[in-house]
């Protein structure tokens, strides 16, 4: 009877031990870390724990098969990628600062050009007066000549007239003719001066009109040049704004890439059983699956 009671106690103790062991193994198989997947829920493989990581190159994986690891130990760290992205971020920040602080000088508006002075008024009265004076002198001399001719003709008909008197009167007539010739020359000179003055005035007006046309053309060209420079200035502003936006977009991409480069740490202590490379993603990163043999005591303590 005592033997039977002892057997029951031993059997009951065995059942309790099996139940406790099974419960402990099942607890060790629970996972809550990111990118981790238990291999099986059965008590036989509950100590296995899988972690999937993404790295830029094989050297980013900080463990190898057979390594003993502790909870919180770094499994993968893309340090080279971080260094490259940090260098890229610094360069982009410098470019952004340079573009933001650069100065683009606007073109200077053209200065107002004073108007051309008009030609002063011109009068031909002096030349016309000289012509009228010459005409009057010619008419007066012609009248004296006619009178002197009549006088000589009358004297030549007198029978007792002295030849000396006739010669003297003829000498006066010749003098009047010479005066007439001089007066005609003065008239012609006055007419020539008037025409010369008119020609000079016409040339001055022509030159003034040419200068005015050139001035208008120069003003138009100056305005066109200013408009072209203003358009180039506005285009440069737009180009700089576009470059700033491009750099900011690229900087945001680098910041996001840096934020995504998280360090993968071991959730439990244990041994690295296997490292399996899964392949390469379209972005060039490598995927690896790390299988851990987790310490039972560690799992129990964390549970």
Structure description:
The chain is an alpha+beta fold. Among the domains are: 36-78 and 261-303, OB fold (Dihydrolipoamide Acetyltransferase, E2P) (Beta Barrel); 125-236. The chain is 62% helix and 13% strand. It contains five helices and seven strands. It has a five-stranded antiparallel β-sheet with strand order 1-2-7-6-3. Strands 4-5 form a two-stranded antiparallel ribbon. Helix 1 (2-28) crosses helix 5 (296-302) and helix 3 packs antiparallel against helix 4. It is rod-shaped. Residues 1-46 have low confidence and may be disordered.
Describe the structure using short key phrases.
disordered N terminus, 303 residues, two-stranded antiparallel sheet, OB fold (Dihydrolipoamide Acetyltransferase, E2P), five-stranded antiparallel sheet
Mean of all residue-level pLDDT scores: 79
List the total number of helices: 5
Order of helices and strands: HEEEEHHHEEEH
Strand order across the largest sheet: 1-2-7-6-3
**Uncertain residue ranges:** 1-46
Largest sheet: 5 strands, antiparallel
Strand coverage percent: 5-15%
Which percent bin holds the helix content?
A: 55-70%
List the helices and strands and how they pair.
Elements: H1 2-28, E1 36-38, E2 48-55, E3 68-69, E4 74-76, H2 79-101, H3 125-156, H4 163-260, E5 264-265, E6 270-280, E7 286-294, H5 296-302
Antiparallel strand pairs: 1-2, 2-7, 3-6, 4-5, 6-7
């Amino acid at each position: 009877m005592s033997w039977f009671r002892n057997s029951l106690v031993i059997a009951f103790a065995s059942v309790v031990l099996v139940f406790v062991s099974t419960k402990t193994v099942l607890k060790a198989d629970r996972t809550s870390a990111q990118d981790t997947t238990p291999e099986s829920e059965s008590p036989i493989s509950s100590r296995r724990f899988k972690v999937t990581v993404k790295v830029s190159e094989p050297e980013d994986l900080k463990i190898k098969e057979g390594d003993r690891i502790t909870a919180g130990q770094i499994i993968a760290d893309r340090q080279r990628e971080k260094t490259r992205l940090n260098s890229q971020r610094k360069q982009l920040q410098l470019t952004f600062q340079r573009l933001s602080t650069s100065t683009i000088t606007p073109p200077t508006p053209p200065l107002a050009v004073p108007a051309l002075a008009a030609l002063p008024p011109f009068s031909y009265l002096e030349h016309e007066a000289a012509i009228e004076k010459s005409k009057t002198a010619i008419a007066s001399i012609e009248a004296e000549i006619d009178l002197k001719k009549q006088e000589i003709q009358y004297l030549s008909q007198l029978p007792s007239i002295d030849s000396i008197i006739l010669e003297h009167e003829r000498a006066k007539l010749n003098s009047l003719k010479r005066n007439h010739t001089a007066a005609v020359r003065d008239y012609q000179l006055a007419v020539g001066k008037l025409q010369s003055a008119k020609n000079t005035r016409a040339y001055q007006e022509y030159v003034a009109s040419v200068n005015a046309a050139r001035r208008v053309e120069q003003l138009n060209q100056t305005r066109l040049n200013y408009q072209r420079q203003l358009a180039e200035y506005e285009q440069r502003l737009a180009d700089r704004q576009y470059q700033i936006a491009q750099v900011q977009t690229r900087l945001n991409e680098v910041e996001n890439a840096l934020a995504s480069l998280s360090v993968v740490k071991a959730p439990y202590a244990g041994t690295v059983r296997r490292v399996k490379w899964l392949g390469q993603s379209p972005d060039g990163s490598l995927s690896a699956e790390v299988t851990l043999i987790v310490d039972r005591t560690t799992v129990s303590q964390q549970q």
